[in-house]
């Protein structure tokens, strides 16, 4: 052993004894410090099914957040507005487009102005086109079932082969029906002297997997239209994440509204498939999913999708929760509405599953996308892509469904 | 690594269980580094205490992209360097605080105690120039590679290797090792 080895070993052996009583006291101080700063947490409220369709893409895509933020807030609002919901539904049924302006955090975190145009499909009222521009130059839009984000500082267009932004329920009847199935909302009425109009504000707080958020939806009492959407994160201090200054509704918006011009030399980069960090924990719980022992990813992916759709068709909510653990805390009523169980839009038949269309890896393990084609009770045919997360827990291979990748696409009547 | 990622997620949601696990997992590691670098275990304890307090207070907004261990170690190192840069380590306690701290020390025991040999090593390390000491401690106690240390000190790999070599030579002479004799 050289002199250097000897001295190195001696320094390596440098050690401390920890006083267990003092150690516990210090831990208690630290725990108390966290308790003082943390928000009251009414329990885990995972993101809802439709929200999973709006998966967050890579970090540079700041503009995406505003839409997702609204969706999360809106959908998780625990509310049954005492206020006349049916009238709102009636007021909004003719509108197929909207223009929103407001503030949201930009790429650097400071607030920027945004403009958002959206129009929906006539048939299923899901988002047909969306275009978002922020005054830091970022543009995000959808076209032909793909989502694009232009980052001027990089002169790159990031794209996903799925519609990963948009309103699954727009601000129309379907959306309000969903809201009506929720509970614990608070509604406040008031009079705005500036405009001379009465308003109603529906407010609530939610805690999803990641953090606590609060949301306000303001309605004009006379027209029953949503006039303002506002959302903020609660921890550690209220931080605004989305606030509209204007919402205008249109019966139709022309194609030209959604045309986008970007430099011809801009590079196109596909966004890698990623699982949100907030979902990793729930996806790695051993009690969920199915065994993938001895199966290829393709075989296991097909098997879990088949089981999931069987559960959806049979209305087996416990089985759905087991296969797609993000839904574990959703109420029965909410889950049924999200999946259209018992309605004319319910899935009644699986036409085709697979093959794997995309692969990636998350910190939990391999991730694949498996497409599935289904028929609804009303005869329409849908294609949806599902993200499957594989795990290896205690040496045993298994998989769970993370959720849909983008909005489903209607193939034919 | 996966466990740490899950711990961070849980911590962000205010989980005391996650805080406990992180504390149990890394406090000894951090205390050893701080104690070896500073000799004065009271200051080392304060630093590690501060780091955990800060972690707890900012749990909801914490953004850790790399490893949790490296994040905590960097927090400790930044504070250690900051303390060291101050003119006189002994004077870091303001007079107004001194009485309180003295009272606290009388009423409660130390968090850590060094064994006799560790005390000797600590004293010897304290006589090695700080930059060399830092390389030795981070490499031998912090399990860091020279390349990582170079990046953290913003110097070349060669410089780090030299500091390590000179530091060890100095340590050897200080500890008057049997092999040398």
Please provide a written account of the structure:
The complex is a heterodimer of chains A (413) and B (181). Chain A contains ten helices and 20 strands. Chain A has helices at 3-12, 20-37, 49-52, 62-75, 85-92, 173-180, 277-283, 297-314, 317-323, 332-338; strands spanning 16-18, 97-105, 111-120, 127-134, 139-143, 146-151, 156-160, 186-192, 197-207, 212-220, 226-233, 239-250, 267-270, 290-291, 347-353, 358-362, 365-376, 381-393, 396-404, 409-412. By secondary structure, chain B is mostly helical. Chain B has two domains: 1-113, Orthogonal Bundle (Rna Polymerase Sigma Factor, Chain: A); 114-181, Arc Repressor Mutant, subunit A (Orthogonal Bundle), CATH 1.10.10. In chain B, helix 1 (2-12) packs across helix 2 (16-38), helix 7 crosses helix 9 (157-175) and helix 8 packs across helix 9 (157-175). The longest helix of chain B has 23 residues, at 16-38. Chain B is globular. Residues 87-107 of chain B have low confidence and may be disordered. Chains A and B meet through helix 1, strand 1, helix 2 and helix 7 of A and helix 1, helix 2, helix 3, strand 1 and helix 6 of B.
